[in-house]
Amino acid sequence: MNERRTHKAAMLDRDGTIIPDRIYTRDPEEIVLLPGAAAAIRQLAAAGYPSIVVTNQSGIARGLISLTQYHAVRRRLDELLAAEGAMLADTFTCPHHPDFGSPCLCRKPNTGLFERAAVVHELDLSRCLYVGDKARDVMPAMKFGGRGVLVQSRATADEDVAQADAVRIPVVPSLIEAVSLLLAPVP
Fold this sequence. Notes:
Elements: E1 10-12, H1 37-46, E2 51-56, H2 58-61, H3 67-83, E3 90-94, H4 112-121, E4 129-132, H5 135-138, H6 140-144, E5 147-151, H7 158-166, E6 171-172, H8 175-183
Parallel strand pairs: 1-2, 1-4, 2-3, 4-5, 5-6
Helix pairs in contact: 1-8
């Protein structure tokens, strides 16, 4: 491991974790924060964990979302968070899908986006937190030695919960509860 990589961060999925998963979100006017999301991001920052979004956006590869629409949604998310005193340190996006182009190393469950974030922000991935509503969002915690929590949204499949349970990753109903659990003192 690179000795300079000493920082930590919270690696958060976007859809179903920070905002509702509306499937191929392209209209910034539809963006709303999930209850407690901004407070959770503020708590993470106060504890020394800047929040970094790591998100699959296959709607781009499918031609259902343009890059312009994606960036407008991202700006709207930043505006909503800022209005509540929260901010994201960065966002890493996979715009690919193997059925609509060639396979890539950045599409979760691959770890390319996490590794890219580690280089850009000099992160020690073993010190990071991993939160999302799919197993693919939190399983990197197991690979890198970090801590993960699965947020069970309406889009979370039973198999995602089973995968998390199998490796003892806690399952909670919201980002704010995930953050409370992750930031609680370890007995």
